[in-house]
TrEMBL record:
Annotated localization: Cell membrane
UniProt source species: Rhizobium leguminosarum
Entry keyword set: Cell membrane, Membrane, Transmembrane, Transmembrane helix
One Pfam family here: FtsX
Main location: membrane
An annotated GO cellular component: plasma membrane
Transmembrane segment boundaries: 311-333, 354-386, 406-428
Tagged with keyword Transmembrane helix: yes
Topology in membrane: Multi-pass membrane protein
Name under which the protein is recorded: ABC transporter permease
Basic and acidic residues bias: start-end ranges: 203-247
Domain of life: Bacteria
Region (Disordered): 203-256
Domain ABC3 transporter permease C-terminal: 321-430
Length: 438
């Protein structure tokens, strides 16, 4: 029987190949959706695990996490600099690291922060040293620059027509170890250097003028077009350099925070204990500030992703149903064309059960091969998509099969069993005399 089936498949190789490809493509669509959604969940969850608590000004919790953890560019409202001073002096806090963003270089975001965050983000350096002066920078593992290279910060991005800062040129002092997060594509520089090149001195913040408010928007990532026209809005008495400060590349770092610090878009906090984390979260969830656990925010985001997944799975299931209907039509026509062959087998004494088995095995084999190929193609597609996403975001997207995928394969094979029975039943019911007269 096996020899007969293999001989039949070789003879009808073109039609067999079409059946396998149809099943493979339909299966690959569903498998890639499942694997990609899982990779996104795992990758984002692992990236968020690096940060225990994020504190920002009152506003969208989701945007705060996306901007501070995943470094997605967006203007955030600023909280008073005194919040940083309070956190630094709080006995429940192991360390608190301010972050400021809005500048970039060669497509990489420049993040103003502290030596404490640079030391703890990846568990050490792969090469070089932590920045120790205003003119030094530390790059993420995925930043394609070399130690000692120059970084000329640009406000905004090149695509937005950003303006290059001439006040300071950073020199790369070290490279972080891989973290599997968006910070692998980041350039870390001293936060005080970011304040200085944007003219955000502590005393300016205390005065609270219109100029200081503009500078705060720059550090929180406000659109570069607004920055480019700020001088016109400020009035005719302002010259073209008033919104920029001066920075000394050889200046030592001062990371003792006071109440007079400039406004900040976000602060990353490492509490000493889990209990401290919950207490800090409650204390800073007032009207002026918001404190969030990134994992908690992602849980709400996953609910939205779950709805999107259901839609994509429904689309994939619809495609698979259409393929199944097409296969049924093809097999019915195929059985009609093989009536003489089936009639000859019956005339030579082949029992009905043998005819049923031959047709069923032949069709089930084709569908099973298509399902297996579909899993391979779906896995490859998910790898490619995850690689593209990781290249642009820096977040590692682990693609892999899980136990529940075995259940999906079992369901598809069970469906193949039922689908293969349809042409087998048609062949089983054929009369040898009618088949030979056809």
């Amino acid at each position: 029987m096996i020899r007969f089936i293999l001989s039949d498949l070789r003879r009808l190789w073109a039609g067999s190949l079409v059946v396998v490809l149809l099943v493979a493509l339909a299966t690959a669509l569903g498998v890639s959706v499942v694997l990609q959604e899982r990779a996104l969940r795992l990758g984002s969850a692992r990236a968020a695990d690096k940060f225990d608590l994020v504190i920002g000004a009152g506003g969208s919790e989701t945007q705060l996490v996306l901007s501070s953890v995943f470094l997605q560019p967006s203007p955030l409202p600023l909280m008073p600099g005194e919040v940083l001073g309070k956190l630094a002096a709080d006995p429940r806090v192991d360390w608190a690291a301010p972050i400021g963003f809005g500048d970039s270089f060669s497509g990489y975001p420049i993040i103003g922060t502290t030596t404490m965050l640079a030391q703890n983000l990846s568990g050490g350096l792969a090469e070089g040293k932590i920045f120790g002066r205003e003119g030094e920078a530390v790059i993420g593992a995925a930043v394609k620059l070399s130690l000692g290279g120059e970084i000329k910060p640009m406000h905004g991005s090149l695509e937005e027509g950003g303006e290059t800062h001439t006040e300071l040129v950073y020199h790369i002092a070290g490279r972080l170890r891989p973290t599997g997060t968006a910070w692998d594509r980041a350039i870390l520089v001293p936060i005080q250097a970011v304040w200085h090149i944007h003219g955000m001195e502590a005393e300016e913040h205390a005065e609270g003028g219109a100029e200081a408010e503009h500078d705060h928007e720059v550090a929180s990532g406000t659109d570069s077009a607004e920055h480019g026209h700020a001088h016109e809005k400020a009035g005719p008495d302002h010259d073209g350099h008033e919104h920029h400060g001066e920075a000394d590349p050889d200046a030592a770092l001062d990371e003792s925070w006071t109440a007079g610090a400039p406004g900040l878009p976000a602060i990353l906090v490492k509490p000493k204990t889990i209990a401290d984390a919950y207490k800090l979260r409650q204390d800073y969830r007032s009207g002026n500030t918001v404190a969030v656990f990134p994992g908690e925010v992602l849980t709400n985001l996953y609910a939205t992703l779950g709805d999107a997944k259901q839609i994509l799975v429904a689309v994939a299931s619809g495609a698979q149903a259409l393929v199944a209907a097409s296969l049924v039509l093809v097999t019915v026509i195929h059985i009609g064309q093989r009536r003489r062959q089936i009639g000859a087998l019956r005339a030579f004494g082949a029992p009905r059960g043998a005819i049923f088995g031959i047709v069923w095995l032949e069709f089930f084999f084709l569908v099973a091969v298509g399902i297996a190929l579909g899993f391979v193609l779906g896995y490859a597609a998910a790898l490619i998509l995850s690689g593209m996403f990781s290249e642009t975001s820096g977040v590692a997207m682990p693609v892999g099969f899980a136990r529940e995928d075995a259940g999906l394969a079992a369901v598809l094979l069970a469906f193949a069993t039922i689908l293969a029975a349809l042409p087998a039943v048609l062949a089983y019911r054929q009369s040898p005399a009618q088949a030979l007269r056809a």
